[in-house]
Specification:
The protein is about 45% helix and about 10% strand. It is of the alpha+beta class and about 500 residues long. β6 (about 235-240) and β7 (about 240-245) form a beta hairpin. The protein starts with a helix and ends in a 19-residue tail after the last helix.
């Protein structure tokens, strides 16, 4: 659902109440209902009896509802909803801040560090976030920790002390206070209500098994096929049912194995050297598999174009695979310029074997240390090797950000200023590393041919052109052959 639609709905109490009265699940995760008479907040589709309108308060985020004094409903569990890519569609200050908070920035550098990253004052940052989502940065970070903690309480056998510190709380007292405020009960009560079969015993030496939720539908065939075709030898181990790889240090530095998505969940096993980075690891996996997409909202926009509709309707729930490491993705993009997918995989495997450590791709510093001569000895052209070294230098120096919290226009401009980087590479990196759902690598040969051949207009797909690109890359082009098909719907205003 576009940001404008959410803002318009929030401005009209009658419309909000109609959504709640009809239990419209399309607004779950976009609109939250606070019920004054009970003190709880719910998702619009909550099966409980619809409250009287005078007892209803409406909020754009779960954190805003908690900040207003409401606790999560135990029946519809609005706190357990998957995340949202609503914020990913924006490039403004609030959207960037929300993405960084989601990825654990406040746990790492605090509010002051987050404000500095965004080049604003703490006061201005707080004011903007309250105006946009109804909660300040500390409340948003607190809600994020509480959600991580609830996941661990319900799905693991970790002690409450381990849960508290793994989720990022600074003390047991803070953990208990926040959990009571968010959920209206002690953490131990949450564990008591969860099924024992849902919990796995864990030890720091054996890892942690979790189930991460997503919104259905999810076309796992497309995602699995796309990732399998691009799995780097020695770095990623891919089977029909599972995918394993090492996480970068920023996301925990351990190993992750994900099973093929099914039944609105992805089963994940994390083997981390420390639980301190658990929240960052979970966030990385969610970005990697695009678990926070709203496929119904995305497909509704794309299918409104009658030219693209047959492809979208034939494969609902297509996702845009992200990455666990932005620099690695940039390396993939450069190596993949004007070569086959298989050829790029072979070259990336050589780079990882020669320059990386512990079954990983090289870091920016390692790429710079290797230099152009070493890279050309692996089979890269001098120009492409120089490009990889230039990207490594820019990232290592802090001049280029390649994560979901980066300023997208700024990162695009800095990429394009580097030697050997053109529009396709910049847009591909924006799509998969910066998390821009509207990135459009329109100079791509496949996309350009299909857009021209079938008379498609990418401007009609905003703000989800990246998802349209995935449909066009992975879908059957014969689906788009409209010869002899009635297209009168295109004449409808």
């Amino acid at each position: 659902m576009p940001a404008e639609a959410v803002a318009d709905l929030m401005a009209d109490r009658d419309s909000c109440y109609r959504v709640v009265s009809s239990r419209d699940a399309r607004w779950d995760g976009r609109l939250y209902l606070g019920v004054v008479s009970t003190g709880v907040y719910c998702r619009p589709s909550c099966p409980a009896r619809t409250p009287h309108e005078r007892n209803c308060r409406y909020y754009p985020s779960a954190s805003a509802a908690v900040a207003a004094g409401f606790r999560a409903c135990r029946r519809c569990r609005p706190d357990a909803l998957p995340g949202t890519r609503h914020d990913d569609a924006g490039a403004d200050l609030a959207a960037r801040a929300l993405r960084l908070i989601r990825d654990g920035a406040i746990d790492d550098v605090g509010v002051a560090g987050l404000a500095a990253r965004l080049h604003v004052s703490e006061r201005h940052l707080h004011r903007v976030l309250v105006a946009d989502v109804g909660a300040g940065p500390l409340q948003l970070a607190s809600s994020r920790r509480a959600q991580t903690a609830r996941l661990l309480v319900e799905q693991s056998g970790l002690s409450m002390t381990d849960v508290a510190f793994a989720a990022g709380f600074s003390s047991i007292r803070q953990f208990n206070d926040v959990m009571r405020a968010e959920f209206g009960c002690a953490p131990s009560a949450l564990r008591g209500r969860s099924s024992r079969s849902d919990r796995t015993p864990v030890a720091r030496t054996t890892g942690l098994a979790l189930r991460l939720r997503y919104r259905e539908p999810y076309d796992s065939d497309v995602v699995w096929g796309y990732l399998a075709a691009r799995a780097i030898p020695g770095v990623e181990q891919m089977t029909d049912d599972g995918l394993s790889r090492r996480l970068p240090v920023a996301a925990g530095g351990g190993n992750v194995t994900v099973e093929r998505p099914s039944d609105a969940h992805v089963r994940v096993r994390l083997d981390l050297p420390s639980l301190d980075r658990l929240g960052a690891a979970v966030a990385a996996v969610r970005r990697w598999l695009d678990l926070d997409a709203d496929p119904v909202a995305v497909d509704a926009v794309l299918a409104a174009d009658c030219g693209l509709a047959p492809l979208v309707l034939s494969t609902p729930g297509v996702r845009v695979p992200g990455t666990v490491d932005g620099f690695e993705l940039a390396v993939r993009a450069v190596v993949g310029q004007q070569v086959s997918v298989a050829g790029a995989r072979t070259m990336l495997g050589r780079i990882a074997e020669r320059l990386g450590e512990h079954r990983s791709m090289p870091t920016p510093a390692q790429m710079v240390d290797a230099g152009v001569d070493t890279l050309t000895s692996l089979g890269l052209t001098t120009r492409r090797a120089a490009t990889l070294v230039a990207i490594g230098e820019a990232v290592a120096a802090g001049d280029l950000a390649l994560d979901s919290g980066a300023g997208r226009d700024e990162s695009r401009a800095r990429l394009l200023a580097l030697p050997g980087i053109g529009p396709w590479t910049a847009e591909y990196v924006a799509l998969r590393a910066l998390g821009d759902p509207d990135a459009w690598p329109g100079t791509d040969l496949v996309l350009a041919r299909r857009v021209t051949a079938f008379g498609l207009d990418p401007a009609r797909w905003r703000p989800w052109r990246g998802y349209a690109a995935m449909h066009l890359w992975t879908g059957n082009p014969s689906t788009l052959d409209h010869s002899g098909i009635d297209r009168t719907c295109e004449e409808t205003p």
